[in-house]
Amino acid sequence: MTDYKKTLNLPQTSFAMKANLAQREPEFVKRWQKEGIYEKIRNSRAGREKFILHDGPPYANGDIHLGHAVNKILKDIIVKSKTLSGYDSPYVPGWDCHGLPIEHRVEKKIGKAGVKVDFKAFRQQCRDYAAKQVEGQKKDFIRLGVLGEWNNPYLTMDKQYEADIIRALGKIIENGHLQKGFKPVYWSVVGGSALAEAEVEYQDKTSFSIDVKFAVVDQSALKAVFGAEQTSETAYVVIWTTTPWTLPANQAVSLNAELDYALVVAGDESYVLAEALVESVMQRSNIEDYRIVGRAKGSDLEHLKLQHPFYNRQVPVILGDHVTTDAGTGCVHTAPDHGGEDFAVSQKYGIETLNYLDDSGIYRANVEIFAGEHVYKVDEKVIDVLKEHNALLCEGKIVHSFPHCWRTKTPLIFRATPQWFVSLTKNNLQSKVMNCIDDVQWIPGWGKARIESMLANSPDWCISRQRTWGAPIALFVHKETQELHPKTPELIEEVAKLVEKDGMDAWFDLEPSALLGDEANDYQKVTDTLDVWFDSGVSHYAVVSRRENLSFPADLYLEGSDQHRGWFQSSLKTSLAINEAPPYKAVLTHGFLVDSNGHKLSKSGDNAIPPQEVLQELGADVLRLWVCATDFSGEMSASKEILKRTADSYRRIRNTARFLLSNIPDFDPAKDLLSTDQLLSLDAWAVARTAQLQTELRKDYDSYQLHLLYQKLHNFCSVELGGFYLDIIKDRLYTTAADSLARRSAQTAVYWIVEALVRWIAPVLSFTAEEIWAALPAVENRDDTVFTAEWLELPQIDADMSYWKTISNVKTAVNKVLEEERNAGVVGGGLTASVTLYAEGEIFEAINKLEEELRFVLITSAASILPLSEAANNAKDTDIKGLKVLVSKASGEKCVRCYHVLEDVGSNSEHPEICPRCITNIDGQGEVRKFA
RNA sequence: ACCCUAUUAGCUCAGUGGUAGAGCACCGUCUUGAUAAGGCGUAGGUCCGUGGAUCGUUCCCACGAUAGGGUACCA
Hints:
Helix content: 25-40%
Strand content: 15-25%
Distance between the termini: 30 Å
Largest sheet: 10 strands, mixed
Radius of gyration: 39 Å
């Protein structure tokens, strides 16, 4: 037997079938860094329109988890797709470096600042620690294939950045939005600092629930108000509280002016309670025998004097709207030190705070009975004292959600302290912020409602912290008047210059006289630090506006939906306060990760998926493909199984590319590329379909509908290419002469497809795309990376799309009959079969058009079309109306070269084993194909 | 407690007021010239539940379940 195999053009490529991503990817990473791919991209886009995706800085602590990976991959996909669209889209990654968690880590290592180690050394340790964390995370992000300015990221602890934080504060002051305030704020007793709303999270907590009696000083006056008889019972106003520890600071009891209050007699005591709550209070106090002896409005009781339950102190009854009958007694224990509403209502009555607690939650020495006690542990003692004083009506426990510090996870208290605020009311900041929401595109749309409702009832933003590892509130206040220095803007700039040079220690080390001269004695240096949300919130100022290659406002912020309350909000507020404009044109959010049961993905539990493991087992491209395939507008489910499925579809895409590449090893586009009018009909269709799909995919990239893009891409590879086009053209690619028109036409289409495909997948399957890119046929001026490329300009072809759609349907119909006959044992593979089609009308015309080439489309050894009226009795019906198919075993010998079974195999004695078509392809002119 | 979002085949996702779609996976089969591949075919769903409006609904409305998120909670 002659070895005709050598005369075939079988697929041939060095592009490996096995991806081996875990090994291969790091090599690409190395190469990209060595060759400065990111810089090359920048050069290639110099002068182009910008698209700025501004990176939200992750906190520089701990290894990256899957959520980080998702976020960075999404950003990278978008930046790369914009680059393919021709934009100059620089990406500057950032890190959030100041703040409590790092401080805690360092404290554990070397002890508390100011106690075991001095502040400066402590800050240096924090700085070193953060820098180390940044390096670790950076390595992982780079490994994911994320391209960016990794050698020049922004860190909120950079000297430049720290200086700009101070300058940003200066701008906010100049625009009149800063306010010094003394009011209760969330206070972390573990952290020893104030917190902002955004740092609070609610968790369930078991608290005491007690009803406490406040004896009325003037018993007869009270009874008169209630119109009750002057009897011997002692009257008490009863309050309910879940925070016994706040009772030492009680300064008043609040009633609602409009509510009806009842005087209830039980035994030898009587109680003032909101009438609506009498029953519930009596019930929980186990008092069955009681009667209401009088009624009064809250307003009638104003200024009534009460005896504090255990201190020698008289407190007044005051009125406030915050008192309701939802719970409690209708009489509210009021401690202006420890409650926002308490503070507000107390101010109206001129009641001052007491400041009984120190920063770590311990009662000061001057507090009777409780000096030295910690608030977390004092509740029981307070209750004992109440009992001793016969002031406890009822005692129980309650589970309720309660504010906790989201960093230390400890319960918070409210504590009135002097703090700095960005006021939402001064200079209409609130309305400015609200008004600009419409100017921003929120994706998905509900993001807008979210941010709106959040901002609508957002209180003044407490930006001061009493911590060590934070940017300083670099201000001088007058010792007497507490007013800011009149030259604050100038001073701020001077401080900023110093900080720019030496970092924020420049402020902490600063001798006031160096800047203030003789005035130094009158002024006090503020030692508070800034909320870290302020740090990251001014990145639009310190990075986007500051860096030359970026421009304000950013086109896109892209973070998890939790950042509505975090970074989106803090950035919006500071930007309005500084620039009177929003920092972003659009805000895109993604959901959180859940497992396949829809449960939250933990960082360490059973369903944890460390990205490092995924990289090791499946590779970054598989992870990236999963990100792309998942609809990120809601929760994103991840599991081992889902990732495995993703790996399957990765292989399909990879193999499609490989097959395309393997069929053009001898194709030189400069010489062999056919013009569109030379293409066979089917090949023209393939190119046109590719162009059509490219339009759709670009639209999906632009609207960030990556999961739709994934579906389309995958379908294209499986259905249109694998199941139809590529399957059909194999015969032509393999058997016709290497340089024949028939083959070059197919190769031209294949070439266009792979050139387009490599670009489509580049933003997502970055490593694989780069690998494909290297395997593409050489063309002049081809860059050595796919990432500087733009979308492929495909030739415009006016192909008859519906015609080939019809043919494809016919092929499917024929396949079904073939399968039936295969199962019946009549035929084996397609090439062992001969088919006769019977049709009429348009279908007949369509099929008939293919003439002798019908068999190549159907991939059978013989195929013919006859009018439906001539249909044989045993022809089978198909899904297509008016189409019948008769399948029979192909007769003749199998051509050892093209595998078709034909009668005329061996008709040439020189080539007894092959068919005439093959003979002409080897020795003669080569066969002519017109359609497929 | 309130608000938002999601719930369609084992998985990922489309979709429509008129008897449910794709790809993958599964299973069967062919192929062995994409071979740790590829082709073909079969099978898979009370479209979360209940009630309502409608001639009719998976799609509209109400209530509820599950999941996720958000506001509130501070007396």
